[in-house]
User: Fold this.
Amino acid sequence: SLRQIHRDGAGGGIPFQGLTMSRRKLIWQIYPAYLAVTLVSVIAVTAYCSHAFRHVYYNKVRSELNRFAVVAAEEIHMVMRAEGEEKLDGVCKEISRTCHGEIRLTVVLPSGKVVGDSHDDPATMTNHSDRPEIIEALQQDSGSSVRPSPTLGERMMYVAVPMREQGTPIAVVRAAIAVTEIDHALRAIYMNILWV
Assistant:
């Protein structure tokens, strides 16, 4: 009856309160594990997306360096044919100034001898015949690598393209940019995404 229910409800306040407390305890037992799983998932997804975006961005920079090297090679080839390899160092430095010196430009003969460099004196530079991007460029249409620079002492991204006459390589034009510059650009992009 309604009276019986009323009497049971009035006298049963404590059991209901105990049930509520049990639920709260259960929630606080489950919540830390749920939070940990969520955080791990978010970190894993973020790390994967960051790695994937970094890979895409590096490929984009590599493609831009390749285009820069191809355009520079056309001008360098004309100067080399008209005035000889002695003028190539000055051309490298002039072309590099158009991008505020951010891109290093180097001209290497098939023998490995450096005949032009935008950031250094080629006469003091070692033979480059063992550089992986130079070897690849002489064998194919282009070569690339990311490695420490023995000259500058920092990690660089290199892209090299061959200059050919009648199918035979006469020199390799190499463009390079510091990986720190790429990472700074990536960090700025990440910060912009976080603030959106």
